[in-house]
Amino acid sequence: MSQGNESARKEIEILRILSEFDRPVGSTLLKRELRKRGFLLSERTVRYHLLLLEAKGFLCGHNRRGRTITSQGMEELGRALASQRLGFITTRFMSLAYSATYDPTVDTGTVVANVSLLDKSLKDKTVETMKALQSMNLLSAPYIKVLDEKSEYCDISVPEGKIALFTVCNLTLDSILIHSGIPLVFGYGGLVQVVNHKPIRFVEIMSYEGTTIPPLEVFVYRRMTSIMRILRTGSGMLLATMREIPAEARERTVKILDSQQKKGWGGVLVVGEPNEPVLGIPVSMDRFGICVVGGIVPGAAMVEEGAQIVTTAPHCFVPIEEMTRI
Q1: Which of 219, 220, 193, 194 is nearest to 206 (CA)?
Q2: How far apart are CA 65 and CA 157, in angstroms?
Q3: Quick one: which of 34, 211, 241, 286 has the most CB atoms within 10 Å?
Q4: Are 38 and 221 in contact (CB under 8 A)?
């Protein structure tokens, strides 16, 4: 995604938050509200966007008390209605996948990363959970990056007592396919029923084209997953996504997936046959479907364990050289 589009998205969310208050709001409170909505920005970055919005006439400053939204700001916010943002998720995800630079032939470059903010006391348990997911082929890639409390990285500011956990988003696999000349179409995000370690069917789905928020986050917030049960018993509800790829590219796709699997990458549940349904979901003519484990599965598993966690997926690009193999 271009830096301009990402900045605009942050600024619209700032306007949205300020529109919900009838009093001036300072950068500290605004940072906290943004975090609740998945924007883990430092206070310095928040102040930067506030200055830009004020220069555009969208905000009014009230000295140290903070800022309020102006009538001009309300008009700008009104132009960002949900109906106008349908399809935004697909465009954003495709842009991220295209912009990642990871090259599997030399194992270098940037990957698309998810980030979770959680209590530092949960670090060891989270890493152990990721190792368990890796052993069952339910992790996109065996890499992790931990940012300690009071640190900053990629516009993320980690509060005292917390850590930021970076994991590889499954959009990185899309990136590998795209840069290998394989076109793909984002289909659905949903819940897959797993029985005795075998994916059976999608039981809930949301179209990427028909929503203004990432589908998998909805299922996590509604506590509809049972990932830890899968780790313990082999059966449960798992977050997964589905893509469609032209039938002519199937052989090449399988070759790439096999190559990545040999390097420890995983998360591919099913590679369908041309014109055949995948886990009960039909595909378009002359295409085949591929079902992949959702990249936010580690965070979702910790939520099931009662952890207070904020996950933003996808969030940023991280050089894979800066991540640690688990």
Answers
A1: 219
A2: 22
A3: 241
A4: no
Residues 6+ apart with CB under 8 A from 291: 192, 199, 240, 241, 242, 268, 269, 270, 272, 278, 279
Q: Evaluate whether 3-80 and 171-298 have a shared fold.
A: no
Query: What is the topology classification, in CATH, of domain 88-169+307-325?
Result: Alpha-Beta Plaits (3.30.70)
C-alpha to C-alpha distance for 278 and 289, rounded to whole angstroms:
6
Nearest in space to 194 (alpha carbons), one of 157, 240, 156: 240
Per-residue confidence in pLDDT tens, the chain, 326 aa: 445 567 787 888 899 899 988 889 998 889 888 877 767 788 889 999 999 999 999 999 998 889 999 999 988 887 766 655 666 778 888 889 999 999 999 999 999 999 989 999 999 999 999 999 999 999 999 999 999 998 888 778 888 999 999 999 999 999 999 999 999 999 999 999 999 999 999 999 999 887 777 889 889 988 999 999 999 999 999 999 999 999 999 999 999 999 999 999 999 999 999 999 999 999 999 999 999 999 999 999 999 999 888 887 777 899 999 999 98
Distance CA 163, CA 170 (A): 22
User: Domain ranges in the chain?
Assistant: 3-80, 88-169+307-325, 171-298
CATH code, 3-80: 1.10.10.10
Q: How is domain 171-298 classified at the CATH fold level?
A: Alpha-Beta Plaits (3.30.70)
